[in-house]
Amino acid sequence: MRIGMLLASVAGVSLMASAALAQQSVGPIDQSRGTFEDKFRQFEGEDWPTPTDYRNASGAPGHRYWQQQVDYDIDVSLNEANRTLTGREAVTYTNHSPDALGYLWLLLDQQNYRRDSLAERSRTYTASDTVSVNEVLRVQRMQDWEGGFNDLKVTGPDGRDLPFTIVDSMMRIELPRPLATGESFAFTIDFSLPLPETNVVGGRSGYECFTKPGEDGNCLFLAAQWFPRLAVYSDYEGWHNAQFLGAGEFTLEFGDYDVSITAPADHTVAATGELQNTDILSPEQRARLAEARTADAPVYIVTPAEAAAAEARPARSGTRTWNFSADNVRDFGWASSRKFIWDAMGVDQESAEHPVVMAMSFYPKEARPLWDTYSTRSIAHTIDVYNQFAFTYPYPTAQSVNGPVGGMEYPMITFNGPRPVRGDDGRLTYTERAKNGLIGVVIHEVGHTYFPMIVNSDERQWTWMDEGLNSFLQFQAEKLWDADFPARGEPSSIIEYMISQDQVPVMTQSDSLLQFGNNAYAKPATALVILRETVLGRELFDRAFREYSQRWAFKRPTPYDFFRTMEESSGVDLDWFWRGWFYSTDHVDISLESVTAATLESTDPEVRNRAARERFEQEPISRTVENNRGIQTVVERDPATRDFYNETDRFTTTAQQRRDAESATRRADADRRAAQGFDDNIYRFTFKNVGGLVMPVILKLTYSDGSDETIRIPAEIWRRNSQQVIWQHVSSKTLVSAEVDPLRETADASRANNLFPRQIDERTLRLSPPPPPGENRMRDSDVEVSPDSTATRVRRPTGAR
């Protein structure tokens, strides 16, 4: 509604007085200085890649989309005594690209444990006068141990050696002739790999041995990045040959795997895929596995008693070979130990191919009672929730393995770290933090099976595409596990990072991030929570997110495919959102600077003058006049100085004012008469964008009758001025207070400027701790001063002579 009006203050005195003060302190933005910044500028044709036949403008795979296929047939043996793997892999590489390839690039990620690797030589440290015990132990270990692949030999299909070149953590194999489109090339790689002791050296794989006093001396082995793997060749980058520096994870191709793992005879092995030679299990274990498929709670396959017996007796001589098969996966991980307890239960889902997914956990006795209660149940819950948001789980198994790796994912298998602690009395107990930590890490790592193990994004370039999207879904799953779960994703939790100096854009490459956890995990997860709950709403968001997930399942999306799909499917222009949350380091801080209340001025001069007199009487009395009370003025003392103007005031209605009002009423047309009858309150709110990130403005209004309403103003309010805007609201009610972001849903950094009238910021102050005692060399040297003189003597220990 457009109404020409004269402003007259009619709302509560306290609100309007505060508004007047706020308006005096904040001047209008001087647009003549060129402060305009288009936060809604479109990305298309400017910052985003031009659509192609391979990936189109809607964010979907194009009609000529392609990706490579790499199949592996691997035999690997674990030497427990010297902690080494020895393997041979037969690789079949199929070229679906339109290009002829003269060579192949492979990832040798374990090369980052070479002393001269780029990762080791570029390690940085913080300025400090202290060093951790772990860092000293790592330095010592790296002096007498070196990781990386050894005994590498590459053989072509004719049995002849193929020349190769190692460039830090990558290997280039020269092909006998260019590999044309549609052709396949088979070759074999022999290798050996010393495993790192994870708790000393770090990393995503390795071993952990229980050798402290009272422990059984046995080890857990986790194998990841354990074989040379083909790097990606894609339509948007060609060969992906960014070196592995430790943070950016793994960009890989899909393929079929047949893997035989030879381990000590008394070990239990867990791995990507399905166990093919189930006769390696005892008849009782096979029966339990069948029972677990339809069980409502986890069933032990290898019982605690069986694992304890294997731990207690001397290691069995000989080996056993476990054979696993996995189709259409992009990697393969496994674990082996005689300590493993194994439990499992089936998870029903709507799938013709996999109507039951076997959720399974493997853990040592030291992980009880935490793991047998929560690990497998957390897997089942993850599948239930992620299936709703993305797509039906497409594999037969989902596994969680306890070991020294705190949390890491591979197709169908994850490594997770939290355990109980053993007290001085020998009892195993766990904290609430450890419990939530286990549930959360299992949800997160199993969730990675969806992102990026199926929706196959480039983790090394855009870490947020798997960590951020997965952390968003982890947040949903955790809140559906327990409403009070301390989940990462609440908007209020990201504020400290967003106003810090360590922030870089989410779109920054993974190895350049200053705060990896906040940038790759928490901020994009929070952004998607806000996009779902506040910007789009659940219906639009959920449909668009499922669209993206299903479009790019078993394919390789880029960020632009995600952005375009979310916009195209929801029907909402979100360029402003991506620019603010993913491309900038702005934060959210919307200040409610002032509130003005107005009504239309009455056409009745009596009413106008009465309102003007009331406003005048509310104005403060002059300080001088106040101090002159008791002193007669000339007008008060001498009647001769008083006339008509002293007997009346400027608020007295005159005859001419009445005639003018009657004349205006006669001349008014129908539209003007209708407008003059409008008597609602007109409120104008001035919002200032302090943080720079444009967002919707959620405004709660409270009225004098005790009622309230919350209005959601779209982000487009900032389109013409991203720094300060005035917004109008009309109500028949009298406003007494207003609040921006009342439910803390936009990550607004400052609550102090969200309220009007302003409120006192109440806090509780804590006494600072007492300063530490100063140096006292006499006390610390066991020297006493005689009370009778300045003589000193050395204090002798009790009983010493």
Tags for this entry?
signal; protease; 801 residues; six-stranded mixed sheet; alpha+beta; 25% strand; hydrolase; Zincin-like; 21 helices; aminopeptidase activity; Aminopeptidase; Immunoglobulin-like; single chain
Characterize the main sheet: 7 strands, mixed
How far is the N terminus from the C terminus? Answer: 101 Å
Tell me the name of the CATH class of one domain: Alpha Beta
Averaged pLDDT, please? 90
Helical percent range? 25-40%
**Corresponding CATH architecture of one domain:** 2-Layer Sandwich
Number of helices: 21
How would the global form be characterised?
elongated
Numbering strands along the chain, what is their spatial order in the largest sheet? 4-7-2-1-13-17-15
Protein name: Aminopeptidase
Keywords: Aminopeptidase, Hydrolase, Protease, Signal
GO molecular function, one term: aminopeptidase activity
InterPro entries: Peptidase_M1_aminopeptidases, Peptidase_M1_dom, Peptidase_M4/M1_CTD_sf
